[in-house]
Request: fold
Amino acid sequence: MRKALGIKNKKELSRVESNPGTTILLDTWEPVARVGIGGPLDWSIAGAAVDRWPGRRIILAGGLTPIDVASRAGSGTPGRKDLAKVRDCIATIRKDAVPA
Reply:
């Protein structure tokens, strides 16, 4: 897996064909940013990807609000996270996690 692929509709799944590997990371399409905007990907697109590549693992990025660490725990400095926000995120994940 090289990067998250911003996909806006099922037709754009054809761009994934050339992406090597067994794992595909799909993200919400955003016309300006390099990656999605933290919103959920249309689940029908994700379903189409699973149907199209049953042997590949499909991961959906973003849409975890309010616990999306990548876009929600920033400190205001690019590339830096706010430790208190990260701790809050981890606490929320632990509280809401489904036991394996």
Q: What stands out?
A: The chain has two domains: 1-63, 64-100. The chain is about 30% helix and 15% strand. Residues 5 and 58 are 11 Å apart (CA to CA).
